[in-house]
Design a protein that fits this description.
mainly beta, N-terminal domain of TfIIb, SH3 type barrels, 2 domains, three-stranded antiparallel β-sheet, 1 helix, Protein YjdM, YjdM, YjdM_C, YjdM_N
Amino acid sequence: MSDLPKCPQCSSEFTYEDGSMYVCPECAHEWSKEAGAESAEQAKVWKDANGNVLQDGDTVTVIKDLKIKGSSSVVKVGTKVKNIRLIDGDHDIDCKIDGIGAMQLKTEFVKKV
């Protein structure tokens, strides 16, 4: 069994060494051997509009009126969103808003309560 690290981008186990680099044959991601040790320790950090660190389960408040795509509804300023779930992607927060339902928000439009 090889002791090479998994790909930090796609988590593939089929990485190989190429000089001073690791290479993933599935997604073609390359990273240095020094960065391999650092990337395992680093985790993505989500921050709200004020720079406060967000975590799963936090309660946030919307800081701007947000139009809901495909609907005439609006999420008003000051709407409190409880028990958020942080995800990777363009919209970082997965949540349920009372009266509207499940939706995704960007961290730049919320502040931590």
